[in-house]
Specification:
By secondary structure, the chain is of the alpha/beta class. Helices cover 26% and strands 23% of the residues. The protein has six helices and eleven strands. Strand 6 and strand 7 (160-164) form a beta hairpin.
Length: 226
């Protein structure tokens, strides 16, 4: 500290050296495959190199609470961050009341959590997530409209949503989804389409490139037609 306040001094012209750096995979992107593996009968998917920082893993905790079969393999530290491979297998899901304390660690994963809830037994209730209304779209209304158009019963709250699931049966589907230029709405409803009786169409898939340019390529490699 100084009379002018806190001062930070940096010596320039440091000698930088190249390094080999492994960047952990994004839990937000992994969430789509965790839900896909949980809701598609016969699925068995391993997602490698997923960052497991506890500030980012709320979706894993929530899915496990619902009964998802998620196994952490080869837990390790990479670049100072916890990392693991995640194996997910199809399992029957049960509705939960999502603990509000999980919200900060999974705020971006709520749209795909609502998809998981659409296949659970019972009514999943998520509250305390009003931030969803000021994301790339109003993700509460967007997902309520998207799932509702596909025959899923949803109830909006100011700070969340209640979703009544099918008990594992396919959702009716047969709708065109307004993605509202929101990548997570587009990807979440693509996952929902993997277990729908009738096709689900996106009005615009281009927003997916915002965060996951190879999403549809990965989906095809897993055996699904995007």
């Amino acid at each position: 500290p100084s009379p002018e306040g806190r001062v930070i001094t940096i010596r320039g012209q440091a000698e930088l050296k190249p390094q080999n750096i492994v960047v952990p995979g994004d839990p937000s992107s992994a969430a789509f495959w965790l839900v896909a593996g949980s809701i598609v009968p016969g699925a068995d998917v391993t997602i490698t190199n997923v960052g497991m920082n506890p500030t980012r893993t709320g979706i894993i905790e929530a899915l496990k609470m619902m009964g998802a079969d998620i196994t952490e393999l080869d837990a390790r530290i990479v670049g100072g961050e916890p990392v693991a491979d995640l194996r997910v297998r199809h399992a029957p899901l049960s509705a939960i009341e999502v603990p509000p304390e999980l919200t900060p660690s999974m705020i971006d994963e709520y749209p795909v959590l609502f998809v998981a809830a659409a296949f659970a037994t019972g009514t999943t209730i998520a509250r305390g997530a009003e931030e969803l209304r000021v994301k790339e779209s109003d993700r509460i209304t967007a997902m309520a409209n998207a799932l509702g158009a596909c025959g899923v019963r949803c109830e909006e709250f100011e700070d969340g949503m209640a979703v009544t699931g099918t008990g594992g049966d396919p959702i009716p589907g047969g709708a065109t989804i307004a993605t509202l230029l929101d990548h997570r709405i587009a990807m979440s409803m693509t996952i929902a389409a993997l277990n729908a009786r009738d096709p689900i169409t996106l009005d615009d898939a281009a927003p997916v490139a915002t965060s996951y340019p190879i999403f549809f390529d990965t989906l095809e490699k897993l055996g699904a037609m995007a």
